[in-house]
Amino acid sequence: MTVNADLAREHREVLRLMRARDWRAAVQAIDDVLKSAPMHPAFLMHRAQCLLALGLRADAFAAVEAALRQAPKDAALWDAAGTLYSLANDQNHALAAYDQAAAFAPGSAQVLYNRASVRRFLGDFAGAEDDYDRVIALKPTDYEAYKNRSDLRVQSAARNHLGELERLVSGGIADWRGDVQIRYALAKEFEDLGEYAKSFDQLTRAARRQREHLKYDLATDLATVQWIIDAFPSAQVPAPASAPPRSTCEDAPIFVLGLPRSGTTLVERILSSHSKVFSAGELDCFALAIVDAVRRKTGRVQLTRQELIAHSASLDPTALGIDYLRRAASASMGSGRFIDKMPLNYLYIGLIRRALPNAKIVHLTRHPMAACYAMYKTLFKDGYPFSYDLQEIARFYTAYRQLMAHWQETLPGAIYHASYENLVTDQMGETRKLLEFCGLDWEDACGAFHENPAASTTASAAQVRRPIYESSLSQWRHYEAQLAGLRSQLETAGVEI
User: Would you state the pLDDT for residue 460?
Assistant: First the structure.
């Protein structure tokens, strides 16, 4: 994906605008270039990226196709197309694009890594592992490839990567991020093989190092809970200033929320296996709609989190709901019922209830120790910075429980609390209750969610391809001694174990 020297200055300006996330200005700059250099593939691809960021999915895809027609054998262009399709949650088109890129550049570690990711999303774990093996052979310092490869399947005594991973650690890894990735991989594989002491040792080392490099203040997140409670003391709804959105129970969104690693992906797969429901993934649409609405209301771009929350309580709920549905339309591809599986939407339940009164809100609960351990052992790609220290996890979890208790008190009957443990031990019975709450008829496919061929891009991508299993319910008990401090802290805070 090359740019002629004469266009280098314009290209730098476009990239600057894109880095600043000024998508509309970037599109204008690109269109100015295309007037003199029509159908330039690199600028068409940048245009597609900006259009997708603006939620214009169909227009973005049209720009990608135009770019590929201009340079049909450009591996970098096909790779960029694959990335855009994947971001748009069209994993089948992404895989086809990466296949073309790999055909033109079979020795590209980047292309193979990207294809492995999409193969994992689509459930082709053997293909993904083969790609990760090739990536590692081409680029032995791609430590994330080792980590992702370990996560693809349950490792066995006969087939694992422990020797390779231990040699990397013993030889020393200069890049701290690489050291973290490899130790998380070791923790995962040791746990699979029942070497629990070794697993927790590697996990502790990795999490500690990850936390050391994060700029994060837990106090702000804890204060946020109180700010929300203060801003939404009751279920009282301000009078709408605009016509309500045309939304009924038949086409209203389903919010699946809670803490990460609490079973949200499992419930998403069950519900999205229904013929009338589409999973739009983890959308940031509601949070973005709130921020934009408060900025318009106050005329200010920069606000503190406390100010943002305080002003959000007086927003026009109907306008907020309309804006959310507009933003979500691209990701939901125009489907009627769709799932928004952003876990942290639990922060906005008060506003969701006001803005989208017909929406269904499903909150996942999980045993406190199981939930906290599951977060601790996960190396998240983005977000959840509290999850790398057990004391911080305990404090965050306590605040989360406080906020959920507030929503339960002020919005009785508005939230369906789905227990992960109950779902695992009585899948069919709990699935029927879940469908009934969402106003959906029973379909056998919901009981066989693991056969759902749709892509899954979450940390649970491998697990949701398997039938429900009970081993995760008590996994934390292998580490009761190591987690004793966490348990004590939770019990002191009033959390029943």
Answer: 55
The domain 218-492: what is its CATH number? 3.40.50.300
C-alpha dihedral over 282, 284, 289, 292, to 10 degrees?
A: -170
Residue 141 contacts by C-beta under 8 Å, 6 or more apart in sequence? Answer: 175, 178
Reply yes or no on whether the pLDDT at 314 is more than 60. Answer: yes
Question: Residue 235: which pLDDT band, with cuts at 50, 70 and 90?
Answer: low
Where do the H-state alpha helices sit in 259-367? 264-272, 285-298, 305-312, 317-332, 349-355
How many distinct helices (H) and strands (E) make up the chain?
24, 5
pLDDT exceeds 70 at position 455 = no
The sheet that has 415-419: what strands, in order across it?
A: 277-279, 337-340, 254-257, 360-365, 415-419
CB 108 within 8 A of CB 77: no
For residue 212, CA distances in Å to 116, 168, 169, 209 come to 30, 21, 19, 5
- What is the C-alpha to C-alpha distance for residues 82 and 97, in angstroms, rounded to an integer? 5
pLDDT of residue 74: 95
Residue 364 has pLDDT above 90, yes or no: yes
N-to-C CA span, the chain: 56
**Integer Cα distance of 171 and 119 in angstroms:** 31
How many whole angstroms separate alpha carbon 220 and alpha carbon 204?
A: 24
pLDDT, tens only, 317-351: 999 999 999 888 877 766 679 999 999 999 999 99
Strand pairing report for 254-257 and 337-340: parallel
Hey, where are the domains in the chain?
A: 148-213, 218-492
